[in-house]
Amino acid sequence: MVSRKEQKNSSQHKQNQPDSTAVPKELLTSLNFEDSARQLDELKATIFNAPELNLNKIKFLKEEIANGRYRIQSDKIAEKLIEFQLVSQPEPA
Predict the structure, then answer these.
(1) Where is the secretion signal located (predicted)?
(2) How many Å apart are CA 52 and CA 48, to the nearest integer?
(3) Which of 1, 18, 47, 70 has the most CB atoms around it within 10 Å of its CB?
């Protein structure tokens, strides 16, 4: 059985300990989300452009075309072409 004094000491000890989930203010002010987003984009591009993934995708698409199940999604193709064109154009001076 735990005495009231031990319970009180235990609860005071817990109150005096810093919250381990709290993030220091210095860390929050030094975070740069643009760098993180850029790194994630680079990692995603690396993963999706890996040769083994491309080979699996090519194999899948060949099977879909051979079996007549592949549907051309012209709206998605048009969106990607426009996106590519916008990204590849130099910015006006």
Answers:
(1) none
(2) 9
(3) 70
- 70 closest CA partner among 59, 80, 78, 81: 59
Structure tokens that stand for 64 in this block = 């879909």
Distance of CA 62 to the CA centre of its chain: 30
Please, are residues 59 and 65 in contact by the beta-carbon 8 Å criterion? no
Q: For residues 31 and 28, what is the distance between their CA atoms, to the nearest angstrom?
A: 6
Position 25 confidence tier, pLDDT thresholds 50, 70, 90: low
Rounded distance between C-alpha atoms, residue 53 and residue 55, angstroms: 5
